[in-house]
């Protein structure tokens, strides 16, 4: 049956100036006015250049400590300065002033990298035993962790001249990771679906709606816009890969993945174990696609059906989501919930308004130790609630670790971060499922399971696929090969086919451009896999709450408060999760299988 849509102009989105203040973040906490930011833009270069006076003089513990404290002050100012610029650009891609501000911030940050390049080689030129003696002094307590990490990476720090050069190329080497998102968020046009303009902010809600024709139209138009720009996007991504390979070789790493993981002591086996375990468990995904096809009553499941609602969507207001999250996180204690609720309501951590020009996706920004900030677009679905639960996990991680440690203690890594965000989603989901089953609300139970499976689809299907894609791209370039848009599209389609099995009928040409839709992930080299490891560690941590809640709470809060003071593998091991084993990934697949089992049980009861 063909659905006929009424003609009419696409729904227009409000401009940034028209959205309610309470739906925006408190960016003024960073700089009260743009003029205040401009004043800092004038002052920072001088503060950065003043650090050059320390070069050649780090020959005593007093001199080293003085430099570190001065550099910390500059870095913290840079964090706030850059946060303001990048946050302003995120909320309105049409704002040329904000874009220029972001570029200016990037240049000043690169200046800091160049000026401070002397530090590592000069520190490492000192006798290691002497430096270790300095580190035992009480006044080095807050500097000890990061200095020890520099010392252990001694083989990969180059001479002062080379380090200065590598610092200077940081900004030009980051150009394509700024161009690609600009292309996707500002220049690509995605047409309409069902009379609604397709945007980065609403495409997910359109492809999860009940009208199959609208889903198809939204998915195809969105994908086709990326396909039309595939050659330029491929050129940018491959340039990024080549640059990363160059930097890895410049620092004497055997390959780019080792260069990315080694500084945080993450063995490459963590990635390869994840991918092999994922491939071994793809039949669970194949079964889910078949169950989904049966729920929707379709002869074949197409890619624009994988997010379609199985039950009528639940409208969720922002305030309701905050209540759900607060109730779900109650096992972590009153203080955690009080801080969470204050940030999400009174203190304006979250920018959730939908407006024209707002970039896609969601993120949490540590806010330069002023306050955490959350970026997202609220579309009133369970998916929005889930995104908020995810991002507040990051923000609470930032808040608790910031309270526990001074700025000189390293911030937690991306590997740490994705555990905290996924844990919040898992814990709140468990609470909501228990409430729905107790109330006999089958539709709500199915909707929550569907939200869970949508979350797993992103973090436990798409992200392992992108991780495998990324690893193969780097291997080909490192072996002296070449990559073009057809190569990237074919590789992506092959990897997706492994996950779809016989459950999804693919459109290979359109499937293959998936990689281009994740520029914010692929340009953060070897980042995508950390979503899958994060969701795995999170579910194993959650299991502990069913055994001894008090001990589990203490374990988990200790993990959050540790921030970056421990390497991620060590921090998780201390919390009872061994990421060198396939067990966390296998345990999470068992959770996924349990959701599919329950959907099969409920099939026909709704």
Automatic annotation (TrEMBL):
Job description of the protein: Has oligopeptidase activity and degrades a variety of small bioactive peptides.
Oligopeptidase F N-terminal domain ranges (all copies): 122-190
What family, per the record?
Answer: Belongs to the peptidase M3B family.
Q: Which UniProt keywords apply?
A: Hydrolase, Metal-binding, Metalloprotease, Protease, Zinc
Enzyme Commission number(s) from the entry: 3.4.24.-
Which residue range or ranges hold the Peptidase M3A/M3B catalytic domain?
Answer: 207-590
Q: What class of enzyme is it?
A: hydrolase
Could you tell me what this protein is called?
A: Oligopeptidase F
Look up the record and name the cofactor or cofactors this protein needs.
Answer: Zn(2+)
